[in-house]
Design a protein that fits this description.
Order of helices and strands: EHHEHEHEHEHEEEHHEEHEEHEH
Number of domains: 2
Shape: globular
Strand content: 5-15%
CATH architecture of the largest domain: 3-Layer(aba) Sandwich
CATH class of the largest domain: Alpha Beta
Structural class: alpha/beta
Helix content: 25-40%
């Protein structure tokens, strides 16, 4: 098996993550923050240690680092939390449904609206396009760090500066950037939403919403928090305000090990390794007659991309191509990748693409074997 579907979830995970998750299921089996006994307190301490690791990684404070079930939950908390009556949102034209659907729903429900700007390889033009979309009633700019379809990055630092000038909230969907791209609150981002199970190498069922505390967010879920239990009102302090009910305790604790793994390797080394594999794949695939690349990562343009490449095998749908590759032991996703805006942008809305996305564990040999398989399949078409 050669797994190259890491934009969906990374696999394998580091051994330390498996070990900590297993240990947490037994050693930290009490409900954190819900009881005064020692077992609960030790579990709460383990959760806090992981929270602190995640906070430091993104330049945040532990109390402003909220555990969620995934990046989608975090984006819903952020987008719907910032929405006010009649407000306006700005977002890019390549957003995942995890971002554009909450934006659409929040604008609809508050009697507001949203506009999309075109993201392009020219970063100055992208920022200019975003600025033109901002209105006096704009509440937030919601933007992916990188497209999960073609890997195109957005100029996060420059967009953060734009939002500061306009005094609007900047919410970043870091599902395809956390763990590889330089994403930190120190660059002026107000809210980072991240998937724990992708580039942070944590378990599935983990995510993060990390805020700088600059903007007050309404809650969309209320309930037991283990704090302020005497009141029927939701706590007004983080992280409790957004962590109603029991969190995925073992997952949250194991996520800290994933963050440790990324810190040891460094995001820069991981990104360089994965981009080199994408360059290798693009160079080889571009020579195969019958294979179409929708983004081509080269040494010259790699700084504009996250390590994701979309392609198709001519004469078959993306799902058919992915199924054939799966039969040969290569696991990649075919289809629309929950990102119809991006597929409209590159002209593949009717059939989708096959997505190549390596990880820190992928190798040159994996890429070379995939290219040989593609040659054999394409030759039969």
């Amino acid at each position: 098996m050669i797994y190259l579907d890491n934009a969906a979830t990374t696999y394998p995970k580091p051994q330390a993550v498996y070990k900590m998750w297993s240990r947490a299921m037994s050693a930290y089996g009490a409900n954190p923050g819900r009881s005064g006994h020692a077992f609960s307190q030790s579990t709460a301490e383990a959760v806090y240690q992981s929270r602190a690791k995640c906070a430091e990684f993104f330049g945040a404070e532990p109390e402003n680092t909220i555990f969620t079930l995934n990046c989608t939950h975090a984006l819903n908390f952020a987008v719907k939390g910032i929405a006010r009556n009649g407000c306006h949102f700005v977002t890019s034209d390549m957003e995942h449904n995890a971002a554009i659907r909450p934006v659409y729903a929040a604008a609809r429900d508050c009697g507001g609206s949203f506009d999309m700007f075109e993201a392009v390889e020219d970063e100055e033009q992208t920022v200019y396009n975003a600025e033109r979309a901002i209105r006096p009633n704009t509440a937030a700019l919601v933007c992916t760090a990188a497209s999960n379809v073609m890997g195109l990055r957005t100029p996060i630092k420059e967009l953060a500066a734009l939002c500061r000038r306009k005094r609007i909230c900047f919410i970043v969907d870091a599902a395809q950037g956390a763990g590889t791209l330089p994403i930190t609150l120190k660059d002026g981002i107000n809210i980072i939403c991240a998937a724990g199970h992708k580039g942070l190498y944590g378990p599935m069922g983990t995510g993060l919403m990390i805020t700088d505390g600059s903007f007050e967010l309404k809650t969309i879920i209320e309930g037991g928090t283990g704090s302020a239990s005497e009141s029927i009102s939701q706590p007004d302090f983080t992280p409790d305000r957004f962590e109603s009910g029991t969190i995925n305790t073992a997952g949250a604790i194991a996520l800290g090990e994933g963050v440790d793994f990324v810190r040891r390797l460094t995001p820069q080394r991981i990104l360089s390794h994965e981009l080199a594999l994408c360059e290798r794949f693009c160079a080889g695939a571009s020579t195969i007659r019958g294979v179409s690349l929708y983004n081509r990562i080269t040494p010259q343009n790699a700084h504009l991309y996250a390590p994701v490449v979309s392609f198709n095998i001519n004469g078959m749908s993306s799902t058919e191509g992915a199924a054939l590759l799966s039969e040969g032991g290569f696991y990649m996703r075919g289809g629309l990748h929950c990102a119809p805006l991006a597929h409209k942008k590159i002209g593949t809305i009717n059939g989708g693409t096959i997505r190549f996305s390596p990880s820190a564990f992928s190798t040159n040999r994996d890429v070379d074997m995939l290219l040989r398989m593609l040659e054999r399949i394409a030759a039969k078409q």
